[in-house]
Amino acid sequence: MAKYFMEFEKGGRFEIELDYDAPMTAAAFKAFMEENNGYQALCLQGRFSGEEMYFPAKLGAKERENKNTKPCRGCLYFNPDPEWSAVCIYWGDETPIRERYHNLFAHLKGDMEELTEVGTRIWQKGGETVVLKREDE
C-alpha cells in the first residue's frame, strides 16, 4: 500500500492521509501521484484566505465535493476551478467566514506545530518548493 508525503524545501515533512468523503478528488490525487511522483511546485501564502498556503496541481478533479467544511490546521483542500487547480494547505485555524467551495480531500499527519512554522515562514519570507512523494510500504 502506498503512502503519500509532502516535504518543504526548508524543512517540514508530513504524511498525507486521504479523506474518502471526497472520493473523486482522493482518486484524482492518487492517479496524479502515480504519474507525477516527486512532483515539485512553488508553495505560496494565500493570506487572503487566512492561514493558508497553496501550490498549483492539475489533479483533474472537476466536481465539487466535501466542500461545506470549516478549514482547520492540517486540512488539504483542492480548488477544482480550472483557472486555479491548486492544493490548499491550512496551517492554522484563522480562516475568514465565507462560503466554502473547495474540496476537502486529505489531512496532514505529523507535527502540527511544525506545520504552523512552515506556514509562518512562507508567509513572512516568501514561497518555497514543496515536493509530493509516493512511497510504497
UniProtKB/TrEMBL annotation:
The protein here is known as: DUF3830 family protein
The record lists the organism as: Emergencia timonensis
